[in-house]
């Protein structure tokens, strides 16, 4: 978060004038949140921090104060890592979600699989309510071949494993969430993350691992999407989607 703000994130946010902004991997403790990080212009931030300093954490910025906030998903192992934040605004629930990466070791891959399994009942329960839901997050999964540049060479790598892709398919096909970006954009070479190694950014060798998953009714109101790449605030690019909340 601190690095992104130094690179112009706060100024950019003010020009966008969104209703909600979800951020992941903020890597900051509550005690280190300065006023210019906690609140940006007219946007007020709420955050769920990781216990480990400089690690993980999620947040939601909004102009309107939420009616209620849920810090964590009720899974202590993952709540200690600051991976789930839920804010309710009337009939709309916004969730900032950060799934573990499984690329560093077999241990972390097993942790990721455990998270994917345990988060499903939580999302299923939320889906059964009368709320409209938008889940914004870094899911650390490229869903289909179109969602990463080098899919052939990554079939055995975390982020594009069959089990990970099937999990995301389950959220969409069985739980009924909509991948809103793909509802509006079916083009190739649409990525939200690029490795810092080599010339991945310059050559657009990326992955689409950031999503907005929404309940069908509000998903159908979406009328515009883009991936902002004019400035680079981190190794991820902001995913922007406009919804007609009056529908």
Outline the secondary-structure elements.
Blueprint: H1 2-6, H2 9-16, E1 20-24, H3 35-38, E2 39-40, E3 43-48, E4 58-62, E5 68-71, H4 76-79, E6 84-89, E7 92-98, H5 106-127, E8 132-138, H6 162-174, E9 178-179, H7 180-184, E10 193-194, E11 206-207, E12 210-214, H8 216-219, E13 222-227, E14 239-243
Parallel strand pairs: 7-8
Antiparallel strand pairs: 1-4, 2-3, 3-4, 5-6, 6-7, 8-12, 9-12, 10-11, 13-14
Describe it for me?
- This protein has a domain at 99-243: Deoxyribonuclease I, Chain A (4-Layer Sandwich).
- The chain has helices at residues 2-6, 9-16, 35-38, 76-79, 106-127, 162-174, 180-184, 216-219, and strands at residues 20-24, 39-40, 43-48, 58-62, 68-71, 84-89, 92-98, 132-138, 178-179, 193-194, 206-207, 210-214, 222-227, 239-243.
- Strands 5-6-7-8-12-9 form a six-stranded mixed sheet. A four-stranded antiparallel sheet has the order 1-4-3-2.
- It is built from eight helices and 14 strands.
- The chain is of the alpha+beta class.
